[in-house]
Amino acid sequence: MKKWMLHMKKADFKELSEKFGIDPVVAKIMRNRGLESEEAYDMFLNGGWEHLYDPAGMKGIVEAAGLIKEKIEKKKSIRIIGDYDIDGVNASYILYKGLLRAGADADITIPDRIADGYGINEDLIRQAHEAGKDTVITCDNGIAAAEQIAYAKGLGMTVVVTDHHDIPYEEDAAGMRRSLLPPADVVVDPKQEDCPYPLKEICGAVVAWKFIQVLYQQVGIGAEETKQFVQFAAMATIGDVMPLRDENRMIVKLGLEQMHTMPCPGIEALMRACNIKKEELGSYHIGFIVGPCLNASGRLETAKYALQLLLADTKEEADNLAAKLKSLNDERKAMTEEGLEEAAAQIEQSDCKEDKVFVLYLPDCHESLAGIIAGRIKERYYKPVLVFTDTKSQEGKDGKIVEMVKGSGRSIEAYHMYDELTKCRDLFTKYGGHPMAAGVSMPKENLKALRKQLNENQTLTDEQLTEKIYIDAAMPFSYVTGALIESLNVLEPFGNGNAKPVFAVKGMKILHIRQVGRERKILKLSVSDDTCVMEAVYFGSIEAFESLICDKFGMSGLEALYRGQENSVSVSALYYPAVNEYMGRRQLQITIREFS
C-alpha cells in the first residue's frame, strides 16, 4: 500500500511567479524540490555553462592530469579500462577522445561482463603490461580494486583511478570508519572524505569529463573544445540515475540541447532506429529507450558495440550498429520478463515473502539481467532486493573448485545497501556500490547465510517499507490549460531528484472507460470533477484498477464504466497534465498515475 503525502513547503509563490515569469504552480513545485533562495530559482531556470563547477576543485584531478601530461610528453603508452554500462561506455569515450586530442598514445579495454566481471582485474592488467602499456587509467571503476592495483604497481605500471563509487572502508569496534583507498598513483573520486568538490553525486563520465577539462588546460587546448563532450556526460548522468539537481541538472539540460542540434552520429542513428525525433529527445528517451539499447550490448554480448557506435564515423556504420543494439535490447526485454516472473513466483511461493530484505537466487537467469530484475521487484514490493545468478566457478584457497554466484542489488531510500553489505563482507569475494545499488560476488554456499544476516541486521520499520508518493498540489481540472502545460516545461529535464510533478484530485467521477492499444493494456477514460470533464489515460495495471473498482462499487459498477452508463463510481487520483496530439488534433489530457 502506497502512502500519499502532500508537500506543505511554504513561500510567496505569487511573488516568485512575478519575478521569474512562471506560473505560481511551477514556483510551488520548485519549492517542493528543495529550492529556497531566489538565487537557487534563477540557477534552476537559467543556469548554463558559466554555472558549472570548476573541475580543479576535485581532489587529485590536477595531479592526475599533470601525471598524464608527463606520460604524453614522454610518449608512454596508456590503456583506459572502463566499464560495460552506459556510464562506463560514455566515460571511456570521453577519456579516449580527450586523450587522443591531447596527443596521447592511448587505447581502451572494456571488461566483458561474463568473462571479466566488473572493473579492473589482474587479467586485464597483465594484458596491458604484455602489450607494453606503461599507464592504466580507469573510469567508472577502480576505487574498490586495491589488490588489482597493487598487482599493477608490482609490475612497475602507473595507475590513475577516476571513479565515482563509494569509497570502501573498515570499521573498528567503536564504529569509527577508515577509508580504504587503492594504492594508485592518483585517485580522483568526489566521494573521498576530504574532496572539496561541491557535488558528490556525479557519474563516472562526468568525472572523466572534468579530468579532460583539466588536462586540456594543462596542455594548452582551449576550454571551448571540451564542450563537445557534454552530451556524453548527460547520457551517463541520466542512465546511471544520478540526481538531476544542481550541476547534474545543468549538464543534462546542456547535453540534451547539444543532442537536439549536433548529436554524435552514433546516437543520431540510435534515435532513428528507435523512431525518436532528435528535436524531441528528452531525459525519458535516454533513460528508457536509448540508454537500455546502449546497456544491452554489455549485457548480452560486448559493450564494445556500444563504444563502437559512439565512435562511428559513417552513417552506414552507425546505422548497422544501432540496429544491432536495438535488436539486442528487444531480446533483453523478453528475457527480463521471464526472469521477473520467476523471481515473483519465488517470493510468492516461499517463506521469503515475509523477509524485509529479499535475497533471490535465479540460477538460469542471465547474470546481466539480475540488476534490472532486482529493480523491478523492488518497485513491486518496495523492499531492498538482491538477485543472484550462477557465474563461473573459481578455485578456492584449498585448491578445490568453488561454485560461485554473482548478485545485483537495488534498494529503497531508508536502506543504505552498501553499508549493510559491508557488515557481511566476510561472505563475499568482491562487492561494491552505492546506497541504492550494489554488486556482489561470493560462493553459492553463502546464500543462506547472507539472507539470514541481512534480515537479522536490518532495522526497517513498516513506515520505512511503505512507499511514499509526494503530491505537489491538489489541483482541479479547470486549472489544466495549455498555458499551464507550457509553463511546466521549464521544469524539465525530469528524472531522479527532479521528478515529474504529481497533482491530486479528490472525488473524481469516472464516466466511461475502454481498453486500447495493440495488446489492450492501456486504459482510456472520460472523467470529471466539480469543474469540468477531462479525457484521461492510464498505463498502469488494469487488473489492479478493476480490482479497486469492484472492491468499492461491485462488479456492476465496473460493468457500468465499460458500458458508459450512469454510475456512482468516484475515486481519488494522482495525475499529470499533457497535450495529446493525434492526426493534427491537439487535446488536453491527463495521465493518471495512481487511483485510490
Question: How would you portray this structure in words?
Answer:
The chain has 596 residues and is of the alpha/beta class. Among the domains are: 3-12 and 468-595, OB fold (Dihydrolipoamide Acetyltransferase, E2P), CATH 2.40.50; 55-225, inorganic pyrophosphatase (n-terminal core), CATH 3.90.1640; 350-457, Diaminopimelate Epimerase, Chain A, domain 1, CATH 3.10.310.30. The protein is built from 19 helices and 20 strands. It has helices at residues 13-20, 24-32, 38-46, 61-73, 86-101, 122-130, 146-154, 204-219, 230-239, 246-261, 265-273, 283-300, 304-311, 315-348, 370-381, 417-422, 447-457, 482-488, 542-563, and strands at 3-6, 77-81, 105-109, 135-139, 158-162, 169-171, 177-179, 186-188, 358-361, 385-395, 401-410, 430-433, 437-443, 468-471, 473-474, 503-516, 522-528, 533-538, 570-582, 585-595. The strands form 5 sheets. The protein has a 5-stranded parallel beta sheet, with helices on both faces. It has a 5-stranded mixed beta sheet with strand order 9-10-11-13-12. Helix 5 (86-101) packs across helix 13 (304-311), helix 6 packs parallel to helix 7 (146-154) and helix 9 packs across helix 10. The longest helix has 34 residues, at 315-348. The chain is globular and about 80 Å long. The model has no long low-confidence stretch (mean pLDDT 92).
